[in-house]
Amino acid sequence: MDTVRRYAMFIDGDWVDADAQFEIRSPATEELVATVAKGGREHADLAIAAAKAAHADGRWRKTAPAERAAVLDAIAGRLTERLNDLAVLEALENGAPVRQAGAFQIGFSIAHLRYFAGQARSYAFERSGPLMTVPTLATGLVRREPIGVCGAIVPWNFPLLLAMWKIGPALAAGNTMVVKPDEHTPLTLLEFARAAQECGLPPGVLNVVPGEGPVVGAELASHPDVRKIAFTGSTAVGREIERMAAGNVKRITLELGGKGPNLVLDDADLKLAADGTLFGCLMNQGQACESGTRIIVAAAIHDEFVERLIERTRTITIGDPLEEATDFGPVISAEARDRILRYIESGQKEGATLAFGGGVPAGPAFERGFWVEPTIFTGVTNDMTIAREEIFGPVLSVIRADSTEDAIKIANDTEYGLSAGLWSTDNQRALDVAGQLEAGTVWVNDWHMVNAAYPFGGYKQSGLGRELGPHALDEYTEEKFVHLDLSGRLDRRAYPLLLSTPPA
Ligand code: NAD
Ligand code: MN
Q: Is residue 500's pLDDT more than 80?
C-alpha cells in the first residue's frame, strides 16, 4: 500500500471525525492500511439519537417496501461494481485470501443483500385475519411493523457479511440502525455506508460507529432507545450482551461460538471427504464460527482418511493474501496467533498426536505478520481442551469413533450447536444421522454453504434466534393485531360484561 486511507464515522448521513484513531494494519505484513476515527460513548449516543429521529419521522419506515427494495438493490449493484476493490480491502484488513474474500466475504454479502431486497418485496407486512360473525361481525388485521432503532455488533472474520445478515433484514423491514464494526475491520462496512449514501438511503437510517466493544458495543446493548440488538461474536461476550439488553427487555439475536463436529462415516467418498474436511476447517484460517473442527472418523477408514488428509494439507499454498494463488493467509492478530499456539501446546500436553504443522511457517515471508500453520492432531479424545474449547484457528482434531452411534454421541457432547456435517454416500443414512445432530445447520457432503434462503443460527450456547431464511424479517418486526368491529353493535358483545344498560 502506498497510500494510507483515512476514514471517519458515518452518523446521521455525515462523515464525523474524532481525535482518537484506530490504526488498521494488514495481518500479513503489519503495514498501516488505514486510520479510522474511533468512536466513544458520545458518538454512539449521537448515532442512536439520529436513528431514533429517523424512525420517528418515518423517512424510511413509511416508504413502500418496493422502494426500500430498490434502494437495497442499488446498493448491491454499487458493491458489485466495486467487488474487486472491496475484496482487496478485505484481504488488507483481515488477511482473508483475496480469492476467498471475493467469493465469500464480499460476494456472499452482495448476494444476501439482494435476497433481503427480494424479501422486502414479498414479505407479508400485513394480512387480514378470519372474519368473525359470532356474536357480531368483526375482523382483524395482523401487521408486521419495524421495531425502531436496531443495534448490530459484528466481529472481524466476515465483517461485511455478518453485518449484512443484520442490516439487510432490518432495513428491508423499515427499521433504522446503528452498527458497530470490530476494532480490526471497520473498512468494508464504512465502504458499505458510502455506497448506501450514494444510493439515496436517507440520513440517519444507517449509522456506522467504529469503537471498542466495552464502550460503543456496550452502549448499544444497554441504551434504552435501542430496541433490538443483534450480535455475532464469542459466547462470553454474547452472554454479557444478553445481560445488558435485559435492562429494557430488548429483542436480541445472538450468533455465538461453535465446535462443529464433522462426521466421516465408513461409507464416505474419502477423496471428497478429505478435501471437504480441510475446506470445512481451514477456510479463513479456521476463523469461522461454523467451522468443522472436530473430525469424528469411523474406525474402519480412519488410517486411510488421515493419510489422505495429511497428503492434501501439504498442497495448501500459504502466503500473501493479495495473491490470487494463495489458499491460506495469516490469522487476525498477534494475540490470536499466541492463543492458537497455546491450544496446540495443550493438545500435545494432554496426549494428542501432532500429525501435521503445529507452528509458525518458516521463511522470510512469515517474519512479519501473524501466521500459524495448518495443524492436524490425531488421537484426540473429546474430553481434551482442544476438543472442547473454540480455538478459532487452523487446528483440526481427529477423533476416532467405534460406531455411528458413538460418533453421534461424541458430536453432541459439547455446549455448542452451531454447525455440524457428515460425509456419506448413502443419502438416506445421511438424513437419519443429520436428524440426530444438535446443530442449527447440518451439511451433508459439503461445508460453509450458508444460503440466504435458509436459516442460520445455533442450538444450545451457540446462540439465540436465526438469521437469513424466509423468516429473517420476523426478527426485525413487531407483530401487531388490529381488531376491527364491523357491526356497530358493541352492545351485543361488550356491554353485557360490564354495563347492563345500553347507551341512551
Ligand atoms: P468478540 O466477541 O470479542 O468480539 C465480537 C464483537 O463484539 C466485536 O465487535 C467487539 O468489539 C464486540 N465486543 C467485545 N466486547 C464487548 C462488550 N463487552 N460489549 C459489547 N460488545 C463487545 O469476538 P472475537 O473473539 O473478537 O471474535 C471471535 C469470536 O467470534 C469467536 O469466538 C467466534 O465463535 C465468534 N464468532 C461467531 C460467529 C457466529 O456467527 N456465530 C461468527 C463469527 C465469529
Ligand atoms: Mn475480540
A: no
